[in-house]
Amino acid sequence: MSVVLNFIESHEGNQREVMLYFHNLLTAYPTVTASIKYRIPFYDQKTWVCYLSPLKNGKVSLSFIRGYELSNEQGLLESKGRKQVLSVDFEKVDEIPKNTIREVINEALFLDETIPYQPKGKRIQE
Q1: CB neighbour list of residue 97: distance below 8 Å, 6 or more residues apart
Q2: Are strands 33-37 and 40-44 parallel, antiparallel or unpaired?
Q3: Which sequence spans correspond to the domains of the chain?
Q4: Do the bridges between strand 48-54 and strand 40-44 make them parallel or antiparallel, or are there none, so unpaired?
Q5: Mutual angle of helices 13-27 and 98-114, in 10-degree steps
Q6: Cα(91)–Cα(73) distance, rounded to whole angstroms?
Q7: In whole angstroms, how far apart are CA 34 and each of 71, 107, 115, 124?
Q8: pLDDT tens-digit profile of 77-107?
Q9: Based on C-alpha coordinates, what's the Rg of the chain?
Q10: 3-state helix, strand, coil in the chain (%, to 5)
């Protein structure tokens, strides 16, 4: 069993089910790989695309690293005061708007594939 699946299995109930749903959805893309970074599951293509974060309130947050670059036409993603990452929280698998989430994931993967990531931090001037 992979390290990511071990992490998911270490959680209980709805959190486990929601994380397993997203893990299976994301790893079904042949270009996506899963790994543990900062003690949570990250999903990469060329660069980090998104991560899953189990929350203390029992929900799971699906967070997109380049969230502000996504269209968010669906109005699903929230900033929660962050400057770059946008996310959406779910408590149960049956709450997940499956087609809408696929659209957001497809857009995030397309962005990662086509537009190079430019970190927003301080630049070193040469």
Answers
A1: 74, 76
A2: antiparallel
A3: 3-114
A4: antiparallel
A5: 50
A6: 22
A7: 24, 18, 21, 31
A8: 999 988 899 999 999 999 999 999 999 999 9
A9: 15
A10: 35, 20, 40
